[in-house]
Amino acid sequence: MDLTQLKGIGAKKAARFARLGVDTAEQLVCDFPRRYEDRTRICSVEELQEGVSAVLVLRLLRIYPAVYLPGRRSLQRVLMADDSGEVQVIWHNQPYRAKSLRVGECYCVYGIYRDKQKALLDPVLERSDVPSLAGLEPVYALCEGLRNGERKKLAEQALEKVPLSQFEILPEGDRCAFGLRSIEWSYRTRHKPASFEELQIACRELDARRWLVYLLALGRIKEIVKRSLCETLRPVDMTPFFTALPFSLTAGQQAAFQEIQSDLLSDEPMNRLLQGDVGSGKTAVAFAAAYLCVQNGLQAALMAPTETLARQHIKTAQKLFAPLGVAIHPLLGASPAKERQRAFQTAAEGESGLWIGTHALFSDGVAFPKLGLVITDEQHRFGVLQRKKLQQKASIPHTLVLSATPIPRTLTLSALGDLSLSQIAERPPGRQPIGTYVVDGRYEKRILAFLEKEFEKGHQAYFVCPRIDDSEDELGHWSIVNVAARCQKGLSAKRRMGVLHAQLKAEEKEAVFTAFRNGEIDLLVATTVIEVGVDVPNATVIVIGAAERFGLAQLHQLRGRVGRGAGKSHCILVAQSPSPSSLERLRVLEKSEDGFEIARRDLALRGAGERFGTQQHGVSGLYDRLAQSESGALELARDWMQRYEALLAEAGSLPEPLATAVAQEKSRFSEIALN
Ligand code: ADP
Ligand code: MG
Description:
Layout: H1 11-19, H2 25-30, E1 35-39, E2 53-63, E3 67-69, E4 73-82, E5 85-92, E6 106-114, E7 119-127, E8 135-139, H3 148-161, H4 172-177, H5 183-191, H6 196-226, H7 239-244, H8 251-265, E9 271-276, H9 282-294, E10 299-304, H10 307-321, E11 328-331, H11 337-348, E12 353-358, H12 360-363, E13 371-377, H13 384-390, E14 398-403, H14 409-415, E15 420-424, E16 435-440, H15 444-456, E17 460-464, H16 480-490, E18 497-500, H17 506-517, E19 523-526, E20 539-544, H18 552-559, E21 570-575, H19 580-591, H20 595-605, H21 622-630, H22 633-651, H23 658-674
Parallel strand pairs: 5-7, 9-14, 9-15, 10-12, 10-13, 11-12, 13-14, 16-21, 17-19, 17-20, 18-19, 20-21
Antiparallel strand pairs: 1-8, 2-4, 2-6, 3-4, 4-5, 6-7
């Protein structure tokens, strides 16, 4: 059903929804709230607490005249009361508020109470003498020109008009046998839950259905891959490699390499995830695996998510492998055509060596007739079908995925199917903890003075900005342009600065990054392009502007850019508009350097509602999956799985509509793996 068939949606509004990826009424129904505002605390004036939101029923006693402030700002104050006492209500920049209010009337009010102003700030309110606003308020993904209230009403309308039974993937008999609520009930509850308990049931039952389809699809694909051949490697003497390495491996790195080696020497294709926190030294382990492969006369490929990172790997590899006689073939989008051509040609001729590039490595139709191993770095895309794609000729390559994303073991096994996991728990010796500090904008002078001192010691620093260009809104203050200008003014004239962001041309990026690597730039003002993998051990400070704009996991990644050498390193998180909750979030980083711990705390702090359900696959959606499995959905799905696997073995097919859902999921897998 076209969106415009809903009341209140014209062509213009439909275009806005299109930007959210919603084109039909069916999609609108499937676009569940991102989180739910907890409006379940009903209290009296007497029971109000600093910083706590609450629902109250109040009588309006007095309306004060609006106060108009410079810059189109205004303040509207009113006095309200219940039997237990009086309280002020303040609205900022909503001078029209007073017009609709009547002294003596009763209102239901929902808002946050602040001790400092002794007032409820910017509450929502409606005329009512009962707590009509109480409950769980759905909060949807919005875009410009689309308000939540409107979105909520549209969801209600669509829920009425769209036949919801089409979303059921289980045969009706099975649904009843499994003791599940109807799909209609679950969809309605996801949009308009009556309580947290009901919301949880709806989420669990819907998530379990998704898990079931996912697991069944994964099972079908796994079968295809299992039947594939791979190159079986023979053992080689690793001594030259380990001698050439400028350090000896930590126990964790050694153990990981042993696991990889035994996979490679077996006759089943490896599909292993090497997980280690930022700075744990995954690259050296990956290079060891590549060495083993190349010494077998085969080809190895390393794919990085960005050109910057690919280039860094190329430099490290060239230095390490040159004396070992292993050929390194750079394959970058920006490389001269001739060089690319040569890299393609040597690949096609089946010469052994290590090819390093971005994932363009495989999209250009390069043939690797003797591909033995594919390593993807910080690339959260894996899975059986991806390997299917890398298959050249009869055999598929071994694959190794490097990731800093902390992934709980139980989850990996079920979510990622046949993926084995190696983990490096410790960091290389001699690293000191990274001093982490949460400050606000007033500290900028001191930060610059601190940078000056570090530069004096010969160290380098990053300044991370959430934006490239200046803009009207408050983030403009933290644009690269403005931050660079302020640093230029605040630092001594001899300091050399560079900027790095995605909009620069590839050559410019390379020039800046090479200069930073070589120590010719003191301060690199950059966007999060430096987030993954960048390794410059001489950089000892990272300053992050408007830090509350970033996720904790991302901040942890960014922080991992420092603390890579022997010197003491520092991470300064500058909060832009520090609210107590955002400060609490940032302080998690002050206290912990453990990626697992941080991810767990992040999940806990984001609150229950936000954790439920997304449509993503792979590691990016993994934490949502974790939330799903916490709700018991995974266990449910596993129970059902057994029944359907048995049915499949017996009857050779799945019942409808499940069969169609699994087939669709399978094709979705391939899209994801191929894009
Ligand atoms: P990540 O796991 O984040 O990819 P890297 O592989 O980039 O980490 O390694 C981080 C830094 O630690 C690099 O500069 C690397 O040379 C160094 N390193 C790795 N392993 C060791 C080790 N065993 N001893 C000393 N330094 C090491
Ligand atoms: Mg890395």
